[in-house]
From TrEMBL:
Gene3D superfamilies: HAD superfamily/HAD-like, Putative phosphatase, domain 2. GO terms for cellular component: cytosol. Keywords: Hydrolase. This is HAD family hydrolase. GO terms for molecular function: phosphoglycolate phosphatase activity. It comes from Kangiella spongicola. GO terms for biological process: DNA repair. PANTHER family: HYDROLASE-RELATED, PHOSPHOGLYCOLATE PHOSPHATASE. It holds the Pfam family HAD_2. The keyword Hydrolase applies.
């Protein structure tokens, strides 16, 4: 699946490297209840995972123009208020170690803002694996290809040398829009049927399949 002809591997974070889907859903629903907003269903929240927060709010809470107060509550709930576990998926460190030793460039492109990404990079102790990371407040939101373009430019690589690994259609659409390859993981936020529609070169049920 992966060869050094595709040396740049770009990982999504939530639902791909970290099992945070449940926590995102719970924190967003609690935020809505506390702010007296319509409470989105589990599926509605799962559908927006991977997008920037501003795009999430536009889809979940249409008609609400001021997003700062939502962000304040949501960040509190996600970081401190909600106690739903969000561990790194089993096998992630093993996979990153193997790919790093083989000479791949490892990067992250996420819907998280920079401060949130930095927090989980440090808490997970995975920061040292990544050659570069990019957050949603540093670029256009997925599925715009800007994040991938930035990473490819940094390493002076082409779209066909780049693989995006993610659990949502937003990740795969970003790869399509950039002309890059997409690998879908089935254990995250979006269904297998929805992922198949966006032409991934592979669909995997376990992150360790990247190195098998």
């Amino acid at each position: 699946m992966l060869t050094l002809e595709t040396p740049l591997i770009v990982f999504d974070w939530d639902g791909t490297l970290m099992d945070s889907t449940g926590r995102i859903v719970s924190a967003m629903q609690t935020t809505a209840r506390n702010l007296k907003l319509p409470v989105p269903s589990d599926d509605e929240v799962r559908s927006i995972i991977g997008l920037s927060l501003s795009n999430c709010y536009r889809l979940l809470f249409p008609g609400v123009d001021d997003h700062d107060w939502i962000t304040e509550e949501y960040r509190y709930q996600y970081v401190d208020g909600d106690k739903t576990p969000s561990p790194v998926f089993e096998g992630v460190e093993e996979v990153l170690t193997s790919l790093k030793e083989q000479g791949y460039y490892l990067t992250v492109a996420t819907g998280k803002a920079r401060h949130g990404l930095d927090r989980v990079l440090d808490e997970s102790k995975l920061r040292h694996f990544f050659d570069k990371t990019i957050a949603s407040d540093e670029s256009n939101s997925k599925p715009d290809p800007a994040m991938l373009h930035t990473l490819m430019k940094h390493f002076a690589l082409k779209p066909d040398q780049t693989v995006m690994v993610g659990d949502t259609i937003h990740d795969l659409k970003m790869a399509q829009n950039a002309g890059s390859h997409g690998v879908a993981v089935t254990y995250g936020a979006h269904s297998v049927d929805s992922l198949k529609k966006h032409a991934p070169i592979a669909i995997i049920d376990d992150i360790r399949q990247l190195i098998e």
